[in-house]
Specification:
The protein is 32% helix and 15% strand. It has 364 residues and is of the alpha/beta class. Strands 3-2-1-4-5-6 form a 6-stranded parallel β-sheet, with no helix packed on it. Strands 9-8-7-10-11-12 form a 6-stranded parallel β-sheet, sandwiched between helices. β2 (41-46), α3 and β3 form a beta-alpha-beta unit.
Length: 364
């Protein structure tokens, strides 16, 4: 049934992915669908946490909340949800490749159920695509390919940011956009083989502080311990002490907050939607391959993305204002959560100097 088109699919359900970065990249599919059929409506079946991202995508009408966590089968819950959705949709796109992710559209009896051939999905899907990884190496290409389109600048993820909301957030958090902001995103939920050393982040921060920049540290509650370590190191070590901050020295001396006026740890203090706003305020971002990296790309802030065990040819930041920092060692990408050799050279041997060269490059 691959010849079926969107002609009669006025109401569309998307079964969304389970990771922040993948959810951002999925917007490319929504844009491609709307470009083919502007009058279509798109709802996304996804976890609660995705609300803050989906509300920034004008292509999406509403979030249908998935009542189950990542990895849970929940046959009964999926059946009940599918029954509730019967008669509401003409077509479904199933983005995850798992068997269970195709259950809700099947229970909902949605006429056209599109997705890639995965684990035992015959019958659950009736518009099956076979994945050609050579033709579509990137995940975003695979998403857009489900509706017969190709990725282009017009389908690149771009999250909406309202100036008034951004200003209210800055006021609520006691932040200012001037002096310019360097946003650091040192976390990566996937595992340590994606995390550039904190000492390297600290060095990049030191160089920006010497130029009069602010530094904001962002992340989720899961990043609290390492991000706090980074924050404290920037206060305690002489390399970022106020006496060595150069242009900031006089300002720091007169500020009642001292270095706190220039280094702010926002870890666990923001929602995903608020993180989008803050990343849009920043002039520069340095991030591991993480969900925040994709959020930063989707607001088109100048960014260097650091890659270790993962592959930028599969899930790159989708912005022309992003640059990739990686060593490309023979052992990478290995896609492991922790280094199988115990040295994590792909990140430990990537110095702050290389990232600074990319940030200060003249080809932005």
């Amino acid at each position: 049934m691959t010849a079926q088109t969107l002609a009669n699919a006025q109401s569309i359900l998307i079964v969304g992915p389970a990771w922040v970065g993948d959810m951002v990249m999925a917007q490319a599919l929504y844009k491609a669908i709307k470009s083919k059929q502007p009058d279509s409506t798109i709802d996304v079946l996804a976890p609660d946490w995705s609300a803050g991202i989906l509300e920034r995508m004008p292509e999406v009408r509403s979030l249908i909340r998935m009542p189950l966590g990542h990895g849970q089968l929940g046959w009964g819950a999926r059946r009940n949800l599918g029954v509730q959705l019967r008669g509401k949709y003409d077509r479904a796109y199933v983005l995850p490749n798992s068997w269970k992710s195709a259950l809700v559209p099947w229970f909902a009896k949605i006429p056209i159920r599109t997705g890639y051939l995965g684990e035992w999905r015959y019958g659950l899907l009736n518009d099956i695509h076979r994945l050609d990884t050579a033709r579509m190496p990137r995940l975003v290409d695979r998403y857009v390919g489900l509706c017969g389109s190709r990725f282009s600048p017009t389908t690149s993820p771009s999250l909406a940011v309202e100036d008034d909301g951004r200003l209210r957030l800055l006021e609520a958090l006691g932040l200012k956009a001037d002096p310019p902001v360097l946003a650091l995103c040192p976390g990566a939920e996937y595992g340590p083989a994606k995390r550039w050393p904190l000492r390297s982040y600290s060095e990049v921060a030191r160089r920006h502080l010497e130029r009069g920049w602010q530094v904001w540290i962002l992340g989720s509650e899961k990043d609290a311990a390492p991000n706090r370590e980074l924050f404290l190191s920037m206060h305690e070590k002489r390399e970022v002490h106020s006496q060595t901050i150069g242009q900031n020295a006089a300002q720091l001396a007169s500020s009642p907050k001292g270095l706190n006026a220039f280094v702010v740890n926002l870890t666990g203090q923001t929602t995903l939607a608020q993180a989008v706003d803050l990343l849009s305020v920043a002039k520069r971002i340095v991030s591991n391959d993480s969900g925040l990296m994709h959020l930063g790309a989707a607001v088109d802030t100048q960014m260097v993305a650091v890659y270790g065990s993962s592959d930028p040819s599969y899930t790159p930041p989708l912005s022309t204002r992003s640059r990739i920092a990686r060593l490309g060692l023979p052992c990478s990408p290995c896609f492991k959560k922790t280094c199988p050799f115990g040295h994590t050279d792909c990140l430990n041997k990537l110095g702050a100097e290389e990232v600074m060269k990319l940030l200060d490059g003249s080809d932005w």
